[in-house]
Amino acid sequence: MVNMKIKALFVAPYAAMENLIEECRKQESELDLTIRTGNLQEGVALAKQAEAEGFDCIISRGGTAKLISEAVDIPVIDVRVSGYDMLRVLTLANDFPRKKAIVGFPAITAGAKAIIDLLDIPIDMFTIRDESETEALLRQLKEDGYQLIMGDVVTFETASRLGLLGILIQSGRESIFDAFKEAATVSRWLAKSRQEIERLKGFLRAAASDLMVLADNGSVVYEQWKTFSARPELDIPVAEGASEPGGPSREMVHATDPDGQSVQVVKTRIAIGESAYWLCEFFKQPTRREAEDKLRIHREPAPLIIHQSEAMNTCLTMIGRSVTYDRFIFIGGKGTGKRLLARHLHDLKTKGHGYFASVKAADLRELSPEEIPEEVRTVYVHAFDRLPGGREEIQWQKIEALKRRGLTLIFAMTEEEASGEHRIYEDGTIHVHVPALAERKEDLKELVTTFLLHFSQTLGTSAIRMTEKGMKLLADYDWPGNVSELKVLLQEAVVLEKGYVIEHSLIEQLLRRKGSESGASSELLKGTLDQIERKIIEKVLEEEGFNQTKAAKRLQINRSTLWRKLKD
Ligand SMILES: Nc1ncnc2c1ncn2[C@@H]1O[C@H](COP(=O)(O)OP(=O)(O)OP(=O)(O)O)[C@@H](O)[C@H]1O
């Protein structure tokens, strides 16, 4: 565009203008000009067509220019009625010894007034706001004895039709040259801005994935979708945050779209000048369906296992030495990496031949051994804590049937779950103790780096480093939820952090929130067992609006026991 000529359409509202434009264009070098004649709606139709054909701008005059500018999205330059144009027509009219008037929009009459006053010319002026007023006004003027009427195209045509002498205020060369110049300036400026916008959009597309920019009133200003096929139908509240001065400028919202897809939205408030906008970034969460699948099959090898610590190395040595066995119990806290290590064991045992499948203990009931695909070599049974009926519900017959199919069976349990289950101490069952993250803080740094890399590749987040102070905060925390908890915290951090480095203040904020989340329950756990029991009963009672029947039901004790415990 910068070195190309600007494609402009000149819509002349009257034929005589076309000739003058033709003449002027000989001295014009910046515009690739097309000239057409068409007044009002005719002009609009010509302009719309030009816009569709890729013209850069339209030049027209008066009412026609106004109508065109309402109908197209490209710049419309209005040829202004200059002092020279006015002077020309007034000088011409002055030679007629008749009662004269100028009729037109304010743009015409205001310009004329200055000259009329200055030169003391006996011409009256009548301003109209809308073309529809023209005919009635001219009829009235005719009755009042006016014979010569000056004005724009509509005025001129109406006057002629009513038998008055009409004089069209024509545009002279200077006005046309001015319009050429303005068309070139505006179009170049617009092309530059468009280029700038395209460049920014390009950066945005490269740097972020699915996003939407909302104005404070909730209307969509910009959107782009990469992993989503279309805008997820979500109700994203924008107004409350915006009206809170000093309120959080960034927050995370969890939502579910109408298809049940879980979506995470990070909202950032951006103030630009007087206006405020919400940049909403969308992240897909694993679908509930996927999570609910009875059998989750992994066909690919286990991802990299971080192990700098002695505790983890011992665990891996144990696994490496047990590959000839086919019944295992992996014992460790939530999120310690039991599944990951089980997949590693599977890889060692099968050397890449056969799939790894995991199933929740509660889903075993509905799973018949025939449903398990042939290629599956290892079945990992987990989530024993979510068995609705407790340990009694473990489907031992099913497990025996799986054993008979020659599959490697791996159970994942916490220390507590494993302790009461004598069957898992059967001969030939290997116990692998997976250390808690608190016992292997040496692994923390590399785990952080691995997760930052993982999120930057899968979510397109930019943070790739953690400050030393941030690392220290992570090392001081005791991670009851182990590696999973670390991973979730880092995911939140990378989504909130737009820079390359995660500062300790963000980690502090996220950890502090954990403190306040767990604070209430940990406070409950202080004191003797009787005191704790009483505090729990009181809390449940309060939550149930002091309804003893409801509280007793929730605590699974009868009402008289509840009453006795409160009395003691
Ligand atoms: N040593 C490690 N190196 C790299 N990633 C790890 C490591 N340990 C755990 N992870 C990652 O942490 C997350 C939790 O691990 P995993 O699901 O194996 O834990 P789990 O003990 O089976 O959890 P749960 O008790 O909730 O079933 C996974 O994304 C896993 O890849």
TrEMBL record:
<keyword id="KW-0067">ATP-binding</keyword>
<dbReference type="InterPro" id="IPR002197">
    <property type="entry name" value="HTH_Fis"/>
</dbReference>
<dbReference type="InterPro" id="IPR027417">
    <property type="entry name" value="P-loop_NTPase"/>
</dbReference>
<keyword id="KW-0547">Nucleotide-binding</keyword>
<keyword id="KW-0805">Transcription regulation</keyword>
<dbReference type="InterPro" id="IPR058031">
    <property type="entry name" value="AAA_lid_NorR"/>
</dbReference>
<dbReference type="InterPro" id="IPR010524">
    <property type="entry name" value="Sig_transdc_resp-reg_PrpR_N"/>
</dbReference>
<dbReference type="Pfam" id="PF00158">
    <property type="entry name" value="Sigma54_activat"/>
</dbReference>
<feature type="domain" description="Sigma-54 factor interaction">
    <location>
        <begin position="305"/>
        <end position="495"/>
    </location>
</feature>
<dbReference type="InterPro" id="IPR009057">
    <property type="entry name" value="Homeodomain-like_sf"/>
</dbReference>
<dbReference type="Pfam" id="PF06506">
    <property type="entry name" value="PrpR_N"/>
</dbReference>
<protein>
    <submittedName>
        <fullName>Sigma-54-dependent Fis family transcriptional regulator</fullName>
    </submittedName>
</protein>
<feature type="region of interest" description="Disordered">
    <location>
        <begin position="238"/>
        <end position="258"/>
    </location>
</feature>
<dbReference type="Pfam" id="PF02954">
    <property type="entry name" value="HTH_8"/>
</dbReference>
<dbReference type="Pfam" id="PF25601">
    <property type="entry name" value="AAA_lid_14"/>
</dbReference>
<keyword id="KW-0804">Transcription</keyword>
<dbReference type="InterPro" id="IPR002078">
    <property type="entry name" value="Sigma_54_int"/>
</dbReference>
